[in-house]
Amino acid sequence: CFILHTYIEIILLIKTNLMNKKPIILGIESSCDETAASIITENKQGLPTILSSVVSSQTDVHKEFGGVVPELAARSHIEKIDLITKRAIEESGIKMEKIDAVASTAGPGLIVCLSVGLSFGKAIAFSLKKPFIAINHLEGHALSPMLNSELSYPYLLLLISGGHTQFLSVQGLGNYKRLGTTIDDALGEAFDKTAKMLGIEFPGGSQIEEYAKKGDPNKYELPKPIFYKGGCNLSFAGLKTAVLRIVKQIKTDQEKYDLAASFQKTIEEILYKKSKVAFEEFKRLNKEKKNTFVVAGGVAANKRIREVLTNLCEEENFDAIFPPINLCGDNAAMIAMVGLKKFKVKQFNDLDYPAKPRWALDENAAFLKGAGVKL
Ligand code: KG4
Ligand code: ZN
């Protein structure tokens, strides 16, 4: 009887341990010019925990061309993906066979780049006999603040990256309603192009902030397209043309700093105004007691933008949430984060899941691009 009792206790112990086992997710990212891998899990309280996050940027590969060259980017992903993934697994201290699922970015992005991380992730999942999860890169940015903040749906998201600029109402996992979008350039693109015109080496977007600190923000008057119309849609193309016109007349470094400062200030004013409009649209849609505003994507690393939008949130009684600076740009922890959420609701994908160069978060939203769009 004693033996039987002990046996039952052991079985119960194993069962509880298995039930309490926290999922371990491997995330892989290769949609543009960052090769990244990450292992995340949950702590005892059920909050996501990053065990490792390795990001290898291809800045040196593309520097001499002044922009990302798809063929070179893909080659570089192929060269590095296994090493970066191996490092992420080693740094996590987790044995490879303990991984519960593999999540890879499947889109949007450059197809030749996406294919590398996607195929690699599928191969690992297949060899480990574990589920494979295809991730939308933009959903990675959208959920990235969950890696360091408790966040509940619905929330308003301003996604500002190199390829996208949108206001979205995030209703739930995989459930997005677009409130506004850029009708031409993405904000990161506007930063990068302005940097290039000022002679800053690629990728220069983040340098604008540094230049701006040394300049006079009121020196140049720059346009704010569709500032008073078009709801919370945005436009940056006219700004770029204005910068180009001024750059041609610039002679000194001080004038460059002044132009960077004027550009930075104009962007702050546009984001402040348009976010305020988006707040109203979000409130009309959701009627929450307490509202949350999340700002994510590469441009969310801009400290002045963070400050201005935090102030707006204080004025408008919204909670402001930003991912930590190192998780604003492309990384695989955010991909694993979406993987973790999908794993918990068993949203798995087949191994023939295609790379999707275009993949909107709100697939019902109308296409809004180009001059002549009626707003
Ligand atoms: O999210 P991300 O890493 O890649 C995409 O998914 O596009 O965003 C990259 C963009 C680039 O355009 C880069 O210039 C911009 O984010 N960026 C910044 C800053 N840091 C990165 N823009 C303004 N200020 C920054 N501090
Ligand atoms: Zn990104």
Task: Compose a concise summary of this entry.
With 375 residues, this protein is an alpha/beta fold. It has helices spanning 2-20, 59-62, 70-92, 111-128, 137-143, 187-197, 205-213, 237-247, 253-286, 303-316, 333-344, and strands at 25-29, 34-42, 48-57, 101-107, 132-136, 155-160, 165-172, 175-181, 291-296, 318-321.
Question: Can you describe what's shown?
Answer:
The chain has eleven helices and ten strands. The site of zinc ion has 4 residues, from α5.
List keywords for this structure.
alpha/beta, binds 5'-O-[(R)-(carboxyoxy)(hydroxy)phosphoryl]adenosine, binds zinc ion
Overall mean pLDDT score?
A: 94
Spans with pLDDT under 50 lasting ≥5 residues? none
Q: Structural class of the secondary elements? A: alpha/beta
The biggest sheet, with number of strands, parallel, antiparallel or mixed sense and barrel status, is: 5 strands, mixed
Shape: globular
Bound ligands, named by name, code or SMILES: 5'-O-[(R)-(carboxyoxy)(hydroxy)phosphoryl]adenosine, zinc ion
Give the amount of beta strand, in percent: 15-25%
Q: Could you tell me how far the N terminus lies from the C terminus, measured between alpha carbons in angstroms? A: 79 Å
Number of DSSP helices? 11
Provide the succession of SSEs: HEEEHHEHEHEEEHHHHEHEH
Kindly provide the radius of gyration, computed on alpha-carbon positions and rounded to a whole number of angstroms: 22 Å
The amount of helix comes to 40-55%
Helix-strand layout with pairing:
Elements: H1 2-20, E1 25-29, E2 34-42, E3 48-57, H2 59-62, H3 70-92, E4 101-107, H4 111-128, E5 132-136, H5 137-143, E6 155-160, E7 165-172, E8 175-181, H6 187-197, H7 205-213, H8 237-247, H9 253-286, E9 291-296, H10 303-316, E10 318-321, H11 333-344
Parallel strand pairs: 1-4, 4-5, 6-9, 9-10
Antiparallel strand pairs: 1-2, 2-3, 6-7, 7-8
Helix pairs in contact: 3-4, 5-11, 6-7, 6-8, 7-9, 9-10
Zinc ion binds at residues 137, 141, 161, 330.
